[in-house]
Design a protein that fits this description.
By secondary structure, the protein is of the alpha+beta class. The strands form 2 sheets. Strands 1-2-3-5-4 form a 5-stranded antiparallel beta sheet. Strands 6-7 form a two-stranded antiparallel ribbon. The two termini are 33 Å apart. The chain is built from 6 helices and 7 strands. The protein has 2 domains: 106 residues, no CATH class; 69 residues, no CATH class. It comes from Shewanella corallii. This is HNH endonuclease. GO terms for molecular function: endonuclease activity. Keywords: Endonuclease, Hydrolase, Nuclease.
Length: 201
């Protein structure tokens, strides 16, 4: 299963690309979000990618992007689009045309007003829900007698400010922004170092 808890009961077909069904699935997280998937076995049909190549890519891809829902293997639509990119430059004109059509059609599907609205609503709740969850996390650590040490270094927080850090960045995984399982208490310098390589603006 995906490392983002999914709600299989919310699986809903939302459109077709090259006669292949795309589904939307909700995430079982405090920040409401939905993700788009297609059956892994349908990727070669829709994109023209070699089935063995798709199987290889799937085996090397994280469980967040290739997952099992209701007993079937699915791949996130954004991942299938990324796998498809090299074929858009293929010397084979037919393969290139198929790859370009897949890319255009999936972009249209992802740009549906209802999908954009849902993402917008989810995005608007990220910061406030994240802040509430951070406070809950600090309280939980205090109750457990663990709120006085950096969870990474074990150094006391008595002489240095500590901050709650998202293990998986909010920019990458907004649906995990309010999950305490995605948090750890770090001394400010440690936290700052964690984000030193983040892209600005």
């Amino acid at each position: 299963m995906s490392d983002t808890p999914l709600l299989p009961d919310t699986l809903l077909p939302v459109g077709e690309v090259a006669d292949v069904t795309v589904v939307e699935v909700g995430t079982d997280t405090n920040v409401t979000n939905t993700r788009h998937y297609m059956l892994l076995k349908d990727v070669p049909v829709a994109t023209g990618l070699d089935p063995a190549d798709v199987a290889q890519k799937a085996s090397e891809t994280s469980s967040d992007k290739v997952t099992t829902i209701n007993g079937k293997r699915y791949v996130r639509l954004s991942t299938a689009r990324r796998w498809n990119l090299p074929n858009m430059q293929s010397a084979n004109a037919e393969l290139q045309a198929q790859a370009q059509k897949f890319h255009q059609d999936t972009q249209l599907l992802l740009s549906r007003p209802e999908s954009i609205q849902r993402r917008s609503i989810a995005a608007s709740t990220v910061e406030s829900k994240s802040n509430i969850a951070k406070q809950e996390y600090r309280r939980k650590l205090d109750q457990e007698g663990k709120g006085d040490k950096c969870e990474r270094s074990g150094v006391s927080t008595a002489n240095e400010k500590a901050e709650v850090h998202h293990k998986k960045r909010v920019a990458d995984r907004p649906e995990l922004a309010a999950e305490t399982s995605n948090m750890e208490l770090l001394l400010r310098p440690v936290h700052k170092e964690e984000h030193r390589g983040d892209k600005k603006g």
